[in-house]
Amino acid sequence: MQIYLPIAEVSVNAFLLLGLGGLVGVLSGMFGVGGGFLMTPLLFFIGIPPAVAVATEANQIVASSFSGVLAHFRRKTVDVRMGLVLLAGGLVGSYLGVRLFAILRSVGQVELLVTLCYVVFLGVVGGLMFIESLQAIRRTRDPAARPKPRKHHSWVHGLPLKMRFRQSQLYISAIPPFVIGMAVGVLAAIMGVGGGFIMVPAMIYILGMPTKVVVGTSLFQIIFVTAFTTLMHATQNQTVDAVLAVLLLLGGVIGAQIGTRIGVRMKAEQLRILLAILVLVVCGKLAFDLVATPSELFSIGQGGH
Q1: Whole-angstrom Cα distance, residue 154 to residue 152?
Q2: pLDDT per residue over 137-166, tens digit each?
Q3: Residue 31 half-sphere exposure, CB side, CA atoms within 13 Å?
């Protein structure tokens, strides 16, 4: 069933969009990521203009993340205080990112910027996560091996403005989570992602948070940052397609509940290596499209209004 998307100005199969939303919802529930790192490139691939895909996907992430975080609240695996610090940084970063997005869109460089950001960030994060996950799996299979404790003193513990995060069992400076949140806010605005693929590893390896608390806390922060990003894009760039957003939302809400149930039955190492493989596959496809000769040697430019 074909449906016309008024802002994107293209016709797309409605069931395809529902399926894509459901897939991203499953990822959200399993890994604590908004899923935008996968959905936004998929929207590119089916012909949605990059400016519309980025802005609308941020809207879809709100619903799938909200659905997932409800399940984590029931399990008491959300550190609200940590989430609020991450959120403060995220709102600042999101505002800056939307302003930068508007400037680049006015000079016609949005598509190149978004694609390059995806290739760089997904390649680096996916590679590091894959290597670490393999090492973690080897340690669990070797009975003589002892996993290295995460709670060790590092530069993070020497910074000022310390706060106690009881749910995460941490007493650290508020500066690193604020900066992490700000970086994720910029990514949410420019790349149409929740930023979980950056935030989850950062929360585990930089802040030293327990894996069981990371997923729910990441989703909690993502909800508010992506909602703010969507509002900014809608009011300043007019690039949010409501019809596209609703179809993605319906699939995302259902998929998030399924993903949460799957996630609790899998080991943390297995979840991380699956996420790493997904990140690397999407990165490879985007990198290939950057250098491959397009089948149609023309493009439809996106106007600044």
Answers
A1: 6
A2: 777 776 555 555 444 456 666 677 888 887
A3: 32
Element (H, E) at 275: helix 268-291
pLDDT digits (tens, 9 = 90+) for 240-287: 787 887 888 788 777 877 777 776 676 666 677 777 787 788 788 778
- Residue in the structure block whose two tokens are 């809608």: 234
Listed residue (221, 248, 269) closest to 31, CA to CA: 269
Question: Rounded CA gap, 250 and 244, in Å?
Answer: 10
Cα separation of 61 and 253, whole Å?
9
**Nearby residues of 198 by Cβ (< 8 Å), 6 or more positions away:** 121, 125, 180, 183, 184, 187
How many CB atoms within 10 Å of residue 291? 6
CA-CA-CA-CA torsion sign (88, 89, 90, 93):
positive
Question: b/e string for 81-96 if b means 16 or more Cβ within 10 A?
Answer: bbbbbbbbbbbbbbbe
Element (H, E) at 300: none
Please work out, in degrees rounded to the nearest 5, the angle formed at the alpha carbon of residue 226 by the alpha carbons of 4 and 271.
100
